[in-house]
Each structure stands twice: as C-alpha cells, then as structure tokens.
Design brief:
Helices cover 0% and strands 50% of the residues. The protein has no helices and eleven strands. The radius of gyration is 13 Å and the shape is globular.
Length: 123
C-alpha cells in the first residue's frame, strides 16, 4: 500500500486547509486511518483518527472542533479538513493506515505511512 498526502501549504492564522490522502497499490478500505503531525523538535502526534467505516472518530483536545477527518472508501481517500488554523498547527502532516479496522490512538498500530505534507500557518 502506498499513501500520498497532499493539500498542504501556507495559510494565514484563522484560515483553513483540506488535506487529502490517496491510497494506491493493494488497497483495502477495511482499515482504520489516521492523520499525524510533527513539528520541528517535537514528537509526532495524532491529530485525527477514524475507523474503517468512518463512523467512529477521535480528536485530541488541541484540534477538537477545528479539524474533521473523513473518508471516501470508493475513492480510497481520507481527508482532513482543518479550520481556524493557528501558528501552533504548523507541522508536517502525515496520513497513516492502521493494522486493523478499529480506530486507534496508538502510533504503533499504524504500519503504512504517507510521505507527509507541510502545513505552515502564519500569524
């Protein structure tokens, strides 16, 4: 499975971006997906996750109410809608596929990773 994330860019504080993650190769929509981010000098952190059906989601407090994860299994694509962005959201964003169809907050449960897309929020 190959994952390609795109849609990042430079945006002003308060703005929005929509990231996409397209899966190719031996794809299977029965797996949970997640979006992570990593800022310079910081650990990679989970910002959104959803199960195989898209009906169960998770967000940390830092993005709750601002970020929305969704998926279109027919297109093998996962999205991350990011609203009300702040400079603290600046990071490289990665999509990842989990080992099972159950939503997971644990990084070790994700075994396929995209290459990352840079999101920069200016103040």
């Amino acid at each position: 499975v190959q994952l390609q994330a795109f849609g990042g860019g430079l945006v002003q504080a308060g703005g929005c971006l929509r990231l996409s993650c397209a899966a190719s190769g031996r794809t299977d929509s029965r797996y949970a997906m997640g979006w992570f981010r990593q800022a310079p000098g910081k650990e990679r952190e989970l910002v959104a996750a959803l199960d195989w059906s898209g009906s169960i989601t998770y967000y940390p407090d830092s993005v709750t109410g601002r970020f929305t994860i969704s998926r279109d299994n027919a297109k093998n694509t996962v999205y991350l809608q990011m609203n009300s962005l702040t400079p603290e959201d600046t990071a490289v964003y990665y999509c990842a596929q989990a080992r099972t169809g159950f939503m997971s907050m644990a990084r070790y449960q994700y075994n396929f990773w995209g290459q990352g897309t840079q999101v920069t929020v200016s103040s």
